[in-house]
Amino acid sequence: MAFPEPKPRAPELPQKRLKTLDCGQGAVRAVRFNVDGNYCLTCGSDKTLKLWNPLRGTLLRTYSGHGYEVLDAAGSFDNSHLCSGGGDKTVVLWDVATGQVVRKFRGHAGKVNTVQFNEEATVILSGSIDSSIRCWDCRSRKPEPVQTLDEARDGISSVKVSDHEILAGSVDGRVRRYDLRMGQVFSDYVGSPITCTCFSRDGQCTLISSLDSTLRLLDKDTGELLGEYVGHKNQKYKLDCCLSERDTHVVSCSEDGKVFFWDLVEGALALALPVGSSVVQSLAYHPTEPCLLTAMGGSIQYWREETYEAEGGAG
């Protein structure tokens, strides 16, 4: 006799605050998990980038070398390198262990809003208010980018990368998807300036947030609108959105001090998580667990599900 498959656990949402870290680097412009979710990066208005163990609340290293505030950062797949971009128009490649600058890439004509490694961490992609995306070869000694994508008519706010695609959101109200295998670009018009874009974890959909306080879920291949999510406030700032670790919920920062969670399929608001009294500037969702990082003012907050018990009683 065959036993029935165990029913999968209902998804839990991270709503228990375990830690608040004062980052000591001015306003935290962005918070990002590393590839396995054990560490995180914070980007400061004081020109520094910091690496943390967020569960322990320990600062591991400070990276200094930008000439102005740091706006975004990312870690490589093997945790050996970081990249960052900022208000000084540069893209910086860092050695994680030594804290040293490996390369500094110059060429953007305005501040760099967003940076990403490709999957092999051989190329850094950077998006700027100069309306271009530039692709920098980490191994080449040449100062110029290996490719420049300049289809956007206004600043680039968000860039994400899959194994063969680049997803870019622009203030011109369009999301562009570059299929590198096919050598084609696909464009979807949203109309309102786009603040953040991301792929769903299964790679079938794209999530887009824009300054009309609306998130939209699109079918990646057809551009069909699959869902709209409202209730949060996003009218002035570049705020992050993402999907939860199992693609069950849509998650967004808000200008009213909360993080909003919606049921992806139903579109209904599942949770408005109060973080504080000002703008939730940035968020990052753990790759495999119901775990969330938020940034507000000069600190970050670490959230887990209600049933979570930290090993060794840390909490």
Structural account:
With 315 residues, the chain is mostly beta strands. Helices cover 0% and strands 51% of the residues. The strands form seven sheets. The protein has a four-stranded antiparallel sheet with strand order 1-28-27-26, with no helix packed on it. Strands 2-3-4-5 form a four-stranded antiparallel sheet, with no helix packed on it. It starts with 13 loop residues before the first strand and ends in a 10-residue tail after the last strand. The model has no long low-confidence stretch (mean pLDDT 95). It comes from Neotoma lepida. This is WD repeat domain-containing protein 83. It holds the Pfam family WD40.
Secondary structure blueprint with pairings:
Elements: E1 14-22, E2 28-33, E3 40-44, E4 48-53, E5 58-64, E6 70-75, E7 81-86, E8 91-95, E9 101-105, E10 112-117, E11 123-128, E12 133-137, E13 147-149, E14 156-161, E15 165-170, E16 174-179, E17 184-189, E18 194-199, E19 205-210, E20 214-219, E21 225-230, E22 241-243, E23 249-253, E24 258-263, E25 269-274, E26 282-285, E27 291-296, E28 299-305
Antiparallel strand pairs: 1-28, 2-3, 3-4, 4-5, 6-7, 7-8, 8-9, 10-11, 11-12, 12-13, 14-15, 15-16, 16-17, 18-19, 19-20, 20-21, 22-23, 23-24, 24-25, 26-27, 27-28
